[in-house]
Amino acid sequence: MSMTANPGTPPTPSVADRVRILTPGDTVTACGFLGETPVLVLAEGGILFAGTDERRVAAHPGGVILCAACDGSRLLTGGDDGRVVETTVEGTAHEVFSGKAWIDTVALGPAGARAWSAGKTVHADTGKIEPGKGAPKTFAAPSTPGGLAFAPKGVRLAVAHYGGVSLWFPNAAAKPELLEWKGSHLPVTWSPDGRFVVTAMHEPQLHGWRVADGANMRMSGYPGRVRSMSWTATGNGLATGGATALIIWPFAAKDGPMGKQPAMFAPGATRIAVVACHPTTEIAAIGFEDGLILLVRLSDGAEILVRPPGGGPVSALAWAEKGSTLLYGTEDGAAGILTL
């Protein structure tokens, strides 16, 4: 991938003419890749496989998909129908769980692990349950979870809720460890090396903890709530939305971002809604509330235009495993695939 810096005021280099436009016809709530096939998660219960031959899977017929997680081989979705559904590379969808409460959050982990929350109850299937046998482990969170995330290694689940994050080993009898901080914690993420846990809060700020000793890290200054976070390819930086510029917090040192200023890139006219860092190169894709999508090289801030502004906010961005393809979707039902 080549990117050219933008000295002075010449127009930003563009690859918009290389985007294959898709017409999902529904709000795109999430997106990802199953194998090499791009997939769009649609609000009204469907999944669009957007390969050479487009096809749709009715994962939640008659329902609304509220949350999704994709790891390249599985797509896990939860809906207002109380169901958790796993869709595979082959395009088959099977029910994992069915209950009465809405499914608020889902997560995928190593070795086939998966988790979801309904009300205050967190369910975790650690990948060792044979179909039709046994039952997921459960944990009663202090309040309705706002986010779930598996640690990069081992089966340990971070559960974000009011008052902090609980770190739970579903296969152990030990009581979950509480990383405490007042306030409502929503999306949660582990650093790729497992040293830090970070949440985006209901307030316009992030909060982090060093897992080894629970040391607190407060990251504030945002004009709006942060709804999207993504780790850079090296794992040393956390890219975030929530501002009119891309904010990247440094996590290479043992104290993470404490005492350090974040890097800022690509100031725009509206706030950034979604961020997705390239899996192997220090590049970030950013989607704004005005529909603009840019690629930003983190070494020098060079920008490339993927989609001009216009239409609804960008609601989903995802890279293929090797970083050769970028997929996007918007709130007003637009979508596209960029092959680099």
TrEMBL record:
A Pfam family recorded for this sequence: ANAPC4_WD40
Record domain Anaphase-promoting complex subunit 4-like WD40: where: 279-338
Name of the molecule in the record: Anaphase-promoting complex subunit 4-like WD40 domain-containing protein
Native species: Blastochloris tepida
